[in-house]
Amino acid sequence: MAHPVNRDKRVPTSIQEPSRQIDVIHECEVLVVGSGPAGLAAALAAARAGAQTTLLERYGCFGGNITQVGVEGFAWYRHEQTVDCEGIGVEFEERAKQMGAAQPEPQSNSHALDGEAFKYVADRLVIEAGITPLLHRLMVATIVEDGVIRGVIVESKAGREAILAQRVIDGTGDADVAARAGALVHKAPREELMAASVMFSMSGVNKQAFIEHIKADPQTYADWAGGEWTIETTGKEDELFSPFLRKPFDQARAAGLVPADLQTLAGTWGAISDQGDLTYLNVVHLPEIDGTDPNDLTRGEMEGRHQAMLAVQALRDYTPGCEQAKLRNFGMTLGIRDTRKIDAQYNMTAHDVREQGRFEDSIGIFPEFIDGYGILILPTTGRYFHVPYRSMLPKGVKHLLVAGRSIGGDRDSHAAVRNMMCCAVSGQGAGVAAAVSLRQGCDVSDVDIKAVQKALRAQGARIH
Ligand SMILES: Cc1cc2nc3c(=O)[nH]c(=O)nc-3n(C[C@H](O)[C@H](O)[C@H](O)COP(=O)(O)OP(=O)(O)OC[C@H]3O[C@@H](n4cnc5c(N)ncnc54)[C@H](O)[C@@H]3O)c2cc1C
């Protein structure tokens, strides 16, 4: 933890930062801040709908959790009967397949994205759509006049700069733009937030031996329960295969390699390549990390890497095929699942995602897939819900839309809409709505929803 600076009474507790004149370096019609599945989809949708669009990102690659954390399971929920969304999210998967940036996902009818190669896929998509790319700039403040957002201020190696925009889409995952612009946002107490994770991948795995071992002792979703975890399913999930790992960590604990009180080491592997890369190892779970607090982030990164190294050793010692394997990489950054949500014009509910919510202002559908807070419901039956446009409209700031995991809703709805494919649904909806509102010369909250739905259909999205 950082120490407070004022233990010595002569040291002031705060300082006045001098105001300064900064350059406006760029102007655009639609500015998308953050380039995860939501922001990337939003920028593509806005540009394809005819708006002059800029995509701003704090790191050196687009893709958000896919490329920065290494979250590769884009549609691991998809089964034979699943009625899935259509549009840009599915395009991500298809394009990644075409470009050799995806491989079959072991538990579903889908492909896992290659988190590294997807950086290049995203570059190509951005260039082809004519989007202005701005990497390596962190949005630090907003420019708001009379309740209308006019742009943002960024900080980078070049110092502080301003970017002006007619519409802004917040795809930061943390609702950073909305919060700084003064929109109503909320965040659960630390102890109620979903755990954070350091993701990692290994190389040098003997694929044949590993797969033979997995087939000889197949794990199921019912096996997720155990240690400190309980799991609510509908029952139909329980006997299905899951690429789940707990036994090697239990064995390592019994042998004294893993501390006895570290009960949360367990989880899934994502994909294994012919070259022996075992990727998207999602087995480290760190409770009580607030992703908007840099002290928590520091603790999470370092403790998470420590636990990941224990996990690598446990896999080498107790999993056939992994004996000669090594750490390939950690995610570029700690994986955060849960921070701020906006208080939206409509906040989605557990009922909406569990009981096939239907909305006049739907901007897309998402299968009945709920994953989080101890709930796992898989869309094996064809049930799905609508994503309402109003869940992306923050209160108190005009010309601003929020897409991705910070849209308005309760815990259960977050466990559904946070999934990357659904973030692409809200992103595409926000991008198109921003472009249509520009054309109509109105605020995003007054846009003609029928025109938005028509433009979304023209882009290949499924609305109902
Ligand atoms: C460990 C882990 C495992 C997961 N597993 C799965 C899974 O298997 N399947 C699934 O579908 N979902 C999974 N999720 C959830 C999913 O990854 C996220 O909910 C989803 O990526 C959110 O998308 P987003 O676009 O809203 O935000 P993000 O993917 O977080 O993208 C936000 C982007 O905004 C940028 N940004 C943030 N703040 C600023 C700023 N101030 N200025 C400029 N740029 C900024 C970030 O760098 C990032 O690129 C997982 C999440 C984690 C953490």
Chain-wise SSE layout:
Layout: E1 24-33, H1 37-48, E2 53-56, H2 65-69, H3 88-98, E3 102-104, E4 111-113, H4 118-128, E5 132-134, E6 138-145, E7 148-156, E8 159-170, H5 176-181, E9 185-186, E10 200-203, H6 207-216, E11 244-245, H7 247-254, E12 267-268, E13 271-272, E14 278-281, H8 294-318, E15 326-330, E16 341-342, H9 350-354, E17 362-367, E18 370-372, E19 375-377, E20 384-388, E21 400-402, H10 411-417, H11 420-440, H12 449-458
Parallel strand pairs: 1-2, 1-8, 2-5, 8-21
Antiparallel strand pairs: 3-4, 6-7, 7-8, 9-16, 10-14, 10-15, 11-12, 13-14, 17-20, 18-19
Flavin-adenine dinucleotide binds at residues 33-39, 56-59, 64-65, 68-69, 71, 73, 76, 138-139, 171-174, 176, 197, 199, 282, 335-337, 404-405, 418-420, 423.
How many helices? The count is 12
What is the overall silhouette?
globular
CATH fold description of the largest domain: FAD/NAD(P)-binding domain
Please write the CATH class name of the largest domain: Alpha Beta
Care to count the β-strands? 21
Largest sheet: 7 strands, mixed
* Fraction of residues in helix: 25-40%
List the keywords:
FAD/NAD(P)-binding domain; 12 helices; globular; alpha+beta; 20% strand; binds flavin-adenine dinucleotide; 2 domains; 28% helix; four-stranded antiparallel sheet; 464 residues; single chain
Describe this structure in words.
By secondary structure, the protein is an alpha+beta fold. It has two domains: 24-103 and 111-187 and 339-458, FAD/NAD(P)-binding domain (3-Layer(bba) Sandwich); 191-330, no CATH class. The chain has twelve helices and 21 strands. It has helices at 37-48, 65-69, 88-98, 118-128, 176-181, 207-216, 247-254, 294-318, 350-354, 411-417, 420-440, 449-458; strands at 24-33, 53-56, 102-104, 111-113, 132-134, 138-145, 148-156, 159-170, 185-186, 200-203, 244-245, 267-268, 271-272, 278-281, 326-330, 341-342, 362-367, 370-372, 375-377, 384-388, 400-402. The strands form seven sheets. Strands 1, 2, 5, 6, 7, 8 and 21 form a seven-stranded mixed sheet that branches. A four-stranded antiparallel sheet has the order 13-14-10-15, covered by helices on one side. The protein has a two-stranded antiparallel ribbon with strand order 3-4. Helix 11 crosses helix 12. It is globular and about 65 Å long. Bound molecules: flavin-adenine dinucleotide. Flavin-adenine dinucleotide is lined by residues 33-39, 56-59, 64-65, 68-69, 71, 73, 76, 138-139, 171-174, 176, 197, 199, 282, 335-337, 404-405, 418-420, 423.
